[in-house]
Amino acid sequence: MNSVNLQNNSLRKFLVLVGLKRRFVFASALLLILGTSFFYALQNASAQNPIRVQTLPPSPFRIGERLTYNVSFENINNAAYAEIYAVSRGKLGEKDAVELRSKIKTNELVSAFYLIDESRTTYASSDAGLPLYLRKTSNAGVTPKETVSNFLVNPTAYNDLLSVIYQARNAGGAGSFSFQEDDKIYNGVFQTTGKSEKVKTDAGEFETSVSTVQSEYLTEKGITNLRINFSTDAAHVPVLIKFKTDKGDFRAELASIQTIEPEITTETPPIAVSTPRPQATPRPIVTPTPYIDNEPLAAELPFKLGETLEYQISTNGQMLGLMTLQAAERKQFSGQDSLLLNAVVTETQPNQQIFKLNDSIRAQVNPLSLAPRQIELKLSGLLSAFNQQVTFNQRAGTAVSSKVNQLEIPVGTHSILSLAYAIRSFNLKPSKDRTNPVNDTRVAVFLDEKAEVFTLRPANAEIINLRGERLSAQLITIVTGNPVVDQYNLRLWLSNDDRRVPLRLMFGAYQADLVSEKIIAPK
Prior knowledge:
- By secondary structure, the chain is mainly beta.
- It folds into two domains: 15-41 and 60-259, outer membrane lipoprotein receptor (LolB), chain A; 295-519, outer membrane lipoprotein receptor (LolB), chain A (Clam), CATH 2.50.20.
- It is 11% helix and 47% strand.
- A 14-stranded antiparallel sheet has the order 20-19-18-17-16-15-14-13-26-25-24-23-22-21, sandwiched between helices. A twelve-stranded antiparallel sheet has the order 6-5-4-3-2-1-12-11-10-9-8-7.
- Helix 1 (11-34) runs parallel beside helix 3 (161-170).
- The two termini are 36 Å apart.
């Protein structure tokens, strides 16, 4: 085990070469789609505000409109949150501009494999709708990454992802439109299918028409079958958005529509960057609901609270001992709702130096996303060098270890024990072409003193022999990128059912086989 010294891979290389591509697939799709809410024709000027009409010329933007969306992924509800907001109108330099904002953030479980926290602010010409200035910020990495494009001096002839949808909405969801993204010019083709559908969401019931969207931009991001249900009124609000990725299907439903009127003075047009914001109506103080220990876990998780799995560990046919994995209890940890995961050695054989009785790993994790909050390793024998306690701050992207000082980690980094449970929720569909493994899943895992990138490569279902039974299982090959570790060919077999139970783990000559499973209710 002393030979397993992980190499120092660059976290920045991880963020750029590995994590960004998968996060950007989802973020790009929603930005392309949800930008529609910023724009549609202003059909009825307010009769109660003649000063607005006299001071500012008509604009195809509805100022103060805020749309929010609930996003689901496969059978996971609330997979992400999206918000779009036409904030204000005023002068940007000498140009009449509208300030537009969007925000997309994946939630809890889905953030384990689609980690997105991205916002965009676009100042667009209030008449032509072309971008004047835009800023994109991604908070999903170790540090925020900001990209700025300034077209005030040298105007652009192309839309961005937000303004191109404005053109499509004004055209009733049909037409061909050019846009520029990441320094490349694309063309987006919107076509109506001729179908009318009634769609009911949390925001109400809408009569809609269905449009399909095709673009090389979507193809590059692995997005297919993009369909948008636009309301059939003059606003053409995007009510429902559906698309597919290699990981599964996404669905974004309109959750709310708000119109928040900004304050506008009669003497001077408002400045886009400093328009006063409306004050929120004070809400009554609600008495917090008392915390209840050991509430059931979310139905989306493939295991239940109290699940206890026992494994026999062997090498070359010789038994070394038994280890038990347990989702032990759900209680508050450091003031946060947490799930305790345990791995404990419950039996050992004499004359072996790897495990000792009661060696343990304890992990506190978020009970929804399974992201780790703390992990503690108490091992003896040959594994004692790995003993440590690590506390994770997922929001800040940092970890504090008893071995090293605070260090930066990718947001969403797993511990080795939280990964053992989270992997059961990953959408691990094998690639059709084994020479082109597009369905590989990459996840950051904290090992010893730093975060490493694990690549999970799914295979087709196969039959394995376990305790004399023939069981259907899916092989997951785990590649760490460290040749010292990867020479041992780390492999995991998950049951080929909804529970996705780890049936077998192999690491070189070592093997762990499931021998029993049961539910032990927490006390």
